[in-house]
Write a structure and sequence with these properties.
Layout lengths: L31 H22 L4 H10 L6 H8 L3 H13 L3 E5 L7 E5 L1 H21 L5 H22 L9
Antiparallel strand pairs: 1-2
Helix pairs in contact: 1-5, 2-5, 3-4
Length: 175
């Protein structure tokens, strides 16, 4: 184990999460992997804090986010959230008990169950989204508009490519 000012052994990251050779926090380049990891820590921390303020888990927030603009079947919802059948059932059960979602039999396939957001769920999702938007805006405030737009575009490319690879349709339908 090294302390913050010591050099880690070759091939090991420093305690702050920076790889050997990465620039200090005052520098601008952490390298792709460390930069994305550190950014994900910031985003996940913001999500966790906001979720906790509303007595939600991050996965419950993601559920509401997915349901804002679509009414997926349970299996599709599981693909969106990366959860297996039993996990998605438990997640939807808990959200339904809180009055945030409902289940209905699919009009297209009577064997399938669709999940939709309730008005209470939509209001909570909108409130959480507004708080998250404000938090991300604060994190990105030091970036010029052109850099924020480029970051948005690059992040969207990564998300779309991953969704395509996993067979997830990101197109939305009115909820």
């Amino acid at each position: 184990m090294t302390s913050l000012g010591e050099t880690p052994p070759p091939g090991r990251p420093s305690p702050g999460g920076l790889s050997p050779g990465a620039k200090s926090p005052g520098g601008n380049d952490l390298g792709l992997v460390d930069a994305l990891a550190q950014l994900s820590f910031l985003v996940q921390g913001a999500l966790a804090e906001i979720a906790g303020q509303h007595d939600l888990s991050i996965i419950q927030m993601r559920l509401l986010g997915v349901l804002r603009d679509r009414k997926p079947a349970m299996n599709e919802l599981g693909r969106h959230l990366g959860l297996d059948k039993s996990s998605i059932s438990g997640l939807v059960d808990r959200a339904q008990r809180r009055g945030l979602v409902t289940r209905t039999i699919s009009a297209i396939d009577r064997r399938a169950v669709q999940v939709s957001i309730t008005e209470a769920g939509r209001q909570l999702a909108e409130q959480v989204a507004a708080e998250f938007t404000e938090r991300i805006g604060t994190l990105a405030a030091a970036l010029p508009d052109s850099d924020r737009q480029r970051l948005s575009h690059l992040a969207a490319q990564i998300v779309v490519a991953d969704a395509h690879r996993r067979g997830i349709d990101l197109r939305t339908t009115p909820g």
